[in-house]
User: What shape does this take?
Amino acid sequence: MTSPGVRIVPIDEVDGLLRTASALSYVLDGGRVDGLQAQVRGADARAQCRWSYEDTEYWRQRELGPLIVRTDGPSALAERFIRDWSPLSAGIVSDASAPFETTQAHWRELRHAILPDGRLALFRSHDPAHLRALMEGMSAAEVDQLLGPAKWWMWRELHAGRDTWYRVEQGGAWQPSAITQAWRITPQQMESLDRHAFAAYVDTATPRLREVVPLLRELEIGQAREKVVLMSQAGRRLGFVQADDLDGYLELVFLHNARCMTPGDVHQTLTDTDRPAWQRLEHARALLQSELPA
Assistant: This one.
């Protein structure tokens, strides 16, 4: 399932476009590239750049947020983006047909999202790992509002061994200053984001677990993944939602299946949802450790 206008872009098209464009705009993630602004300046001293959180309530954390960059003419930033930063899911690239100040204002307006339960959250719409999931279910007009003054966005998605570039184009419905409040995330978009994040988690957890769990090593990768999916779903129902907690739960249930899945002290500890997930994991590990020979 994809959003309106999203298409796969061959790498040679990406390479040709980014290396020959007369002007480009980048939204890069300071939290994923150390010393990002200095690296940008080192690659292209003429580039315009400004932190999106500058002059906002998050100004103290600005260097962990999006850096808006504009290049005019040939720039070494294209090579740095393709080779070094896109593999880190460190941002997106777009055309630079709008003035730099207009692009900066648009991203500043996009800094918040309202979740379906009413909570306010930082809106990481520049994160390539979640863009397709975010756009699922959006109307063409909503995609246009997300893109803002850009005619197109392009990003690289690395998922389960697949390396794919995507492009989405502006349909013409964007209206300046149309975003008057935080972006509202719909329940359908939250479900899509959760599905996408869960699939990505399983795809990275499966090979990692196969290294430490003999049972999973004996299975074909597809069969091992199915078992990881089932156990992950069970863990999430018990409140092991954060990646670190779910990692711990999966290791326990695969390595000590009988003790974790049948009635007893370890099973009771793991299923006691009145206690925090991390606390249950520590207690279960302590119980299992106490049974090891001295």
